[in-house]
Amino acid sequence: MSESLQPSTAELYARHVIATYARFPLSLVRGEGAWVWDEEDRVYLDFTSGIAVNTLGHSHPALQNALATQAATLIHVSNLFLNRPQAELAARIGAMVGTPGKIFFCNSGAEANEGLYKLARKHGSGRGRHEIISLDGSFHGRTLGGIAATGQLKVKLGFGPPLDGFLNVPARLECVAQAVGARTAAVMVEPIQGEGGVRPLSADFLRALRALCDEHGILLFYDEVQCGFGRTGHWCGWHATGAPDALPDAVSWAKGIGGGFPLGAFWVREPFDDLLGPGTHGTTYGGSPLACAAAKAVFDTIEKEDLLANARERGAQLAAAAGKMPRVREVRGAGLLLGVEVQDLPPLEGEEGTVALRLTKRLIKAGLLVVPAGEQTIRLLPPLNVTASECEEAAEILHGVLADRRV
Ligand SMILES: Cc1ncc(COP(=O)(O)O)c(C=O)c1O
Asked: Which of 13, 104, 164, 350 has CA 20 to 30 A from 274's CA?
């Protein structure tokens, strides 16, 4: 118990919240831009953005106003009816992709991907094609379908038997080509793998996957839940890899699209966009007026404040700074989806966990929040409106910790 005799936030969690996350012992109470404050009023530079979600940072007035105005007008009506914000947002996302197609709105990344698995099966049904090929190191969500598609053993352990119809293969063209067979319905990839350690696929690889899928009459899906919607300094993550021409048949989004308000979506291009007809798919909350008003405000603000350019510039600034730091082996990614891979970080007394986890904990102590990814990599995911001086400050903290000055 804390001094006030009220249980602390950590105590309430320990007693009442299922411990699916090994949470950092930091209870956050408010935020502004790239900054957050904890219960003790300590301030941190937030380079997590709630894991690539808070596109506009914390408490952006445009998002506040959109939510307040829409909440006072109409929050939810279900998909039995039309609502204007959903229709307008769908049109804008369609224009963003730039190819004729249609959109389905849902609530999360895993749910958006579930829609893609169903689309693949619908497309392949009658031809015996139901299998989805995805890549080792990928992450596609925590549903049963999501963990089957995810190419990481740790998310699958304890949840067998694995769902039928999913195949994980090494991220090489010959491995994907070898895996494609009579039962294949689709290939699904993250153009830049996020959770797996920020690993961009090459433009040539994406183009070759497009050609392979065309050759076999199967669908190509991009999971842009993490790398989409401006995070890379481009609206579409596959543009950031240098292959804007490698157009997929469907794309999933979530995270940054609502700027912090839960929203997921998938887009399907013509002629596959009517495969999921009435009664084949649904979700109660998806595309509510409130969620779509939030996403429209995020869209507007990215355009008005030229945040794609800012993401590219600040990303280049951070990558250049991190690339010169001690212990750094490699900096990967695009825009403000950056992975900094560290060679080693000798443990201090009592420290446990991977290099990425130990580094993250030291950075938190020093006032910088980052996200571990894989064993040796931390992700820098500041909001798209982060400033040059905030990036300088973050780089200084990171450099200090890597040089063992600020521990
Ligand atoms: C690429 C990718 N796909 C899917 C997901 C799952 O999204 P959600 O947690 O919203 O279900 C994530 C989450 O980290 C992700 O990074």
From this structure: 164
Residue ranges in the chain whose pLDDT is less than 50: 406-407
pTM strictly above 0.85: yes
pLDDT score for 5? 84
CATH number for region 63-304: 3.40.640.10
* pLDDT tens by residue, 281-302: 999 999 999 999 999 999 999 9
Is 255 among the residues known to form the active site? yes
Residues of the chain with CATH 3.90.1150.10: 9-60+306-402
Nearest residue (by CA) to ligand 1, atom 4, is: 140
Residue of 154, 155, 255, 381 best suited for mutating to test ligand 1, as the one with most atoms within 8 Å of CB: 255
Instruction: Give, using CA atoms, the residue closest to atom 7 of ligand 1.
Output: 109
Q: Domain 9-60+306-402 adopts which CATH fold? A: Aspartate Aminotransferase, domain 1 (3.90.1150)
- Identify the pLDDT of residue 311: 98
HEC string of the chain?
A: CCCCCCCCHHHHHHHHCCCCCCCCCCCEEEEEECEEEECCCCEEEECCHHHHCCCCCECCHHHHHHHHHHHCCCCCCCCCCCCHHHHHHHHHHHHHHCCCEEEEEECCHHHHHHHHHHHHHHHHCCCCCCEEEEEECCCCCCCHHHHHHCECHHHHCCCCCCCCCEEEECCCHHHHHHHCCCCEEEEEECCEECCCCCEECCHHHHHHHHHHHHHHCCEEEEECCCCCCCCCCCCCHHHHCCCCCCCCCEEEECHHHHECECCEEEEEECCCCCCCCCCCCCCCCCCCHHHHHHHHHHHHHHHHCCHHHHHHHHHHHHHHHHHCCCCEEEEEEECCEEEEEECCCCCCCCCCCCHHHHHHHHHHHHCEECEEECCCEEEECCCCCCCHHHHHHHHHHHHHHHCCCCC
Q: 233: Cβ below 6 Å to ligand 1?
A: no
